[in-house]
């Protein structure tokens, strides 16, 4: 569906490899200087509001989306995600894995839709890709916000997470509140709630200057610079921060409560898909599969959040 990335059909991949891994497409263009928080990231779409893959009228034209006289392609959906946000989505041994990956696949299995493939993007490129019809659903630990709801729709929430502040392990800097970050070098991933906290709670309040904030395309880069001493702190989603703390030379200094909730993103006019995915989330919770997936990707029940 995405003309700028090389695509693979997930089912074909599974037949060839015999594994349960997911298919990954190439990396789309990165909005390197997005760094403007939720508002910009959710409003930078190209505005044509395409219908996504397979949501056409089943006509006999030569487009891929409307191929097939039985209309089966109308029920195939393409998911987009942004790897590097452990444990929600990441690449291990060339395979796309994570909580969001497993959860969306389980949710789609509860519907009449079929998950045809996964496409990888930088986080800021996901909403434009959805608006342009290059993907049909976003599964990327995306927080439901009013700004984003101006351009896309969300399913019912599937996860809640606050923000953690990471610092170097064993270092002299041990902040206990946002006020303790005054005049410090702080980092976050572009377009995330962590960046919004930095902008609204630190920069807008005069605790740090614009020059003291660094926006990253991926939290992996931010953690690397924190380990090297180029940053004093990172503001990051709580479960993601806990994963980095378990595996890297960083630690959680404190947690800032935001009450944020994640949802799967869909086009604003995709009412049937939105309803089906929301019902699928409820079914996965009720069956106990949600808890199984949570236990797979999180070390403690403290990161699992039932509304």
UniProtKB/TrEMBL annotation:
Signal recorded as keyword: yes
SMART domains reported in the protein's UniProt record: PBPb, PBPe
Key words of the record: Signal
Region (Disordered): 34-79
Keyword Phosphoprotein on entry: no
Molecular function terms, GO-annotated: ligand-gated monoatomic ion channel activity
One term under GO cellular component: membrane
Positions of the Solute-binding protein family 3/N-terminal domain: 76-301
Bias (Gly residues) ranges: 36-57
InterPro entries: Iontro_rcpt_C, Solute-binding_3/MltF_N
This protein's name: Amino acid ABC transporter substrate-binding protein (PAAT family)
Organism: Halopiger aswanensis
């Amino acid at each position: 569906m995405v003309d700028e990335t090389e695509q693979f059909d997930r089912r074909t991949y599974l037949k060839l490899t015999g594994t349960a891994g997911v298919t990954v497409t190439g990396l789309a263009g990165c909005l390197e200087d997005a760094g403007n928080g939720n508002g910009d990231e959710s409003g930078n779409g190209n505005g044509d509001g395409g219908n996504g893959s397979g949501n056409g009228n089943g006509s006999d034209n030569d487009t891929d989306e409307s191929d097939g006289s039985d209309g089966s392609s109308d029920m195939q959906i393409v998911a987009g995600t942004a790897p590097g946000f452990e444990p929600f989505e990441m690449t291990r041994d060339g395979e796309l894995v994570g909580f969001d990956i497993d959860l969306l696949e389980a949710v789609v299995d509860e519907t009449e839709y079929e998950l045809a493939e996964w496409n990888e993007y930088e986080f800021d490129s996901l909403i434009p890709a959805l608006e342009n019809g290059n993907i049909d659903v976003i599964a990327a630990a995306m927080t439901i916000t009013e700004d984003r709801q101006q351009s896309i729709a969300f399913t019912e929430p599937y996860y809640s997470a606050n923000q953690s502040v990471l610092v170097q392990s064993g270092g002299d800097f041990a902040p206990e509140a946002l006020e303790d970050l005054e005049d410090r070098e702080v980092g976050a991933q572009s377009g995330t709630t962590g960046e919004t906290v930095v902008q609204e709670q630190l920069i807008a309040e005069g605790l740090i200057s614009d020059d003291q904030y660094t926006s990253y395309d991926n939290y992996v880069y931010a953690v690397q610079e924190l380990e090297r001493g180029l940053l004093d702190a990172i503001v990051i989603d709580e479960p993601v921060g806990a994963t980095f703390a378990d595996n890297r030379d960083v630690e959680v200094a404190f947690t800032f409560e935001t009450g944020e909730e994640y949802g799967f993103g869909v086009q604003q006019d995709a009412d049937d898909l939105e309803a089906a995915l929301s019902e699928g989330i409820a079914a996965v919770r009720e069956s106990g599969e949600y808890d199984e997936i949570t236990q797979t990707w999180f070390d403690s029940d403290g990161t699992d959040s039932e509304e």
